[in-house]
Amino acid sequence: MKATAALTDLSPKCADCAALCCVVFAFDKSESFAFDKAAGEVCRNLQNDGRCRVFEKRQELGLSGCVTYNCYGAGQRVSQELFKGRSWRDDPSLMAPMEAALSVLRRIHEMLLLLQTARQLPLTEADKENLAKLEQELAPEEGWTGSSLQSFPIDARSAEVAAFLQGLRHLVSG
Fold first, then answer.
1. Does pTM top 0.85 for this prediction?
2. What value does the CA radius of gyration of the chain take, rounded to a whole number of Å?
C-alpha cells in the first residue's frame, strides 16, 4: 500500500469501499441520526449490494450524520489496498481487522488533510521541515499494512500534529 502524503487521495469513493462506515461506527438517536446503532452492527438501511436503501432521502429521514460523514478516502484504501477487495460481507472474520484499520487510517487521513491545509500558509523553512516530517510519518513511502496500522502510535502522532498546528496559530489569527 504505497502512497506518499502528496499522492494520498483524501476524497471518499463509496463505490470502492465495503460500506465500512455503515457498520463500524456507533451512533445514538439525535438530531443527526434517527435511530440508535451499535458499533459493528450493520445499519438497517444497508442493502445486500452494499448500497444505502435511503441514500437520496438521508437528510429528510433524520440521517444528516450520514450526509456529513467523511472518511477522507480511508474506507476505500482499507477495502481495496489493505484487504485487496475482500469484504466482511464475504468473510465475517474480516470485520474486526477492517474496523481496526479504518479507525486508525481515517484519523491519519484527517491529519493529512489538516497538514495539506497548513501547507497553504506562509510557513517558515523550519515549519515546512516539521510539516514534511509529520506527513512522512502519516504516509510512509512503503505504505500501510494491517500490522503497521495496528502498531502505529496514533494518539501520540495526533498530539504532535495538534501541537504543530497550534504553533501556526499566529499565521491565521488577527
1. yes
2. 18
